[in-house]
Amino acid sequence: MSQQPIAIAYLPWADLEDEFAIGPVSFWPFHVKAAERITDATVRNHLARFFETFVDNVGKPVQTVVAVSIGDVQSRAFTDEEYHAIASAVDCLIFAAIACGAKNGVCANNSSMGPPSADRFDLCARWIWPTEQGIVVKTENSLGYWSCGQYKITQPISLGGSFLGSFQPLLEGLGCAFSNEFPIDVWERLLRTLEWFRFAHTESTAVSWPHKVVMMATAFEIFLEFPERGQTAYFAEQIDERLRLEDSIFAKRTDKKDKEHEACLAAWWARDFYHLRSRIVHGDTVTASDFLYKDWITHLIVADLVLLELVKRMLYEQRCIGDDLRRTAAEWAQNSDDSVEEFERVLLPGMLGLGLDDVHEAFGWIPPLAQRKKRHEEQHERDDA
Which of 130, 251, 280, 382 is most buried, by CB atoms within 10 Å? Predict the structure, then answer.
């Protein structure tokens, strides 16, 4: 019997039906693909017996296990680089599934369309050793023994909602970031950002709403490279610069010195969100209403979708997504006096680009589509006059 660890990681509750890759990391439903992906029958049988450990709430072995691998599954250990890639790929998956799920619920104005939580994608173990009596599993800080057929792990209740809509295009873009050509400084910031996103999206009772606000604020601090001072103003300025659309609604506010400032509504949200974070870390009293943005939409939901837009824009700038948009812009520019860059700018927010308009409209940051169309038609008439 081999005493070598088996080169496989696993997400016992992920329940993903399709096989896909994020960079060098493969995700595949174990019970469907094991015979195809694991050629060593001994290794395959050991793993099948081990995964019977994971059961639903009535004690029945689940069929939700997703295997995570790099290369062939065989009796060997992952290198540190391989395991780091796996952990990073899982964070990419968590971000894509949750943020895209939140987008669908917000745009449908349906609070029941909740996305999965980070707990659904729990990356459980690092090394697995088969023995005569069972399997030994080593995590970062523990060593456990599972006697085959006796020890059971029950599915947690904190898995969140269902998978709604497609997050595969975003995963493909994130997968491109694993290439050696991707800027290493941007890559490292992205990974640390998504790690804090994962922390903020557990449904464990050990993590409260104030914790989640602080952790999401930390994700923004990393991604946008906050300065040591003036963080609130910097965040608002960055969001005003990056998320402002042609149709953005602006508002004015007066500061403590009676100086008036104008910014798009997305920027004012950023200021309010970071102010909420500061109240929490400074020990001020916060109530449940402080976490609401509008109607049933919380500040944390808005934070998810703001980060989604920032990541999409970054991936577009790095040419990891948006090839169809660039081709369309190039075709249209051939018969126009406007540049390719101008067409890209115009196309970027809409369905031909990054699909940002519907989120901004749902938040009330831009007017409804009918009003936007009417305004553009009137502008074209004035330009042609």
Answer: 130
Residue 302 backbone phi and psi in degrees, to 5: -60, -40
* Lookup: tokens for 113: 């369309």
Cα–Cα dist 203/205, whole Å = 6
Structure-token match 């693909």, residue found = 33
Spatial contact of 198 and 94, defined as CB atoms under 8 Å apart: yes
- pLDDT tens digits, 271-311: 999 999 999 999 999 999 999 999 999 999 999 999 999 99
For 74-85, give the DSSP string: -BSPPPHHHHHH
> What 3-state class would DSSP assign to 40?
coil
Q: Which residues pair with 154 in a beta bridge?
A: 55
Nearest to 123 by CA among 164, 69, 74: 69
Burial pattern 8-44, b for ≥16 Cβ within 10 A else e, equals bbbbbbbbbeeeeebbbbbbbbbeeebeebbeeeebb
Maximum CA pair distance of the chain? 85
Sign of CA dihedral 203, 206, 209, 211: negative
* Burial classification of residue 138, based on how many CB atoms lie within 10 Å of its CB (0-12 exposed, 13-18 middle, 19 or more buried): middle
pLDDT of residue 126: 58
pLDDT at 132 over 70: no
Which of 294, 290, 256 lies closest to 273 in space, CA to CA? 290
Task: Check pLDDT > 60 for residue 1.
Answer: no
CB 88 within 8 A of CB 193: no
CA distances from 369 to 105, 270, 364, 379 (A): 18, 24, 11, 15
pLDDT over threshold 60, residue 222? yes
Give the Cα separation of 18 and 216 in Å (integer): 30
Over residues 218-224, mean pLDDT: 98
Buried b (16+ CB within 10 A) or exposed e, 60-73: eebebbbbbbbeeb
Q: Which of these, 383, 320, 365, 312, lies nearest to 22 by C-alpha position? A: 320
368-378 residues labelled b (16+ CB within 10 A) or e (exposed): eeeebeeeeee
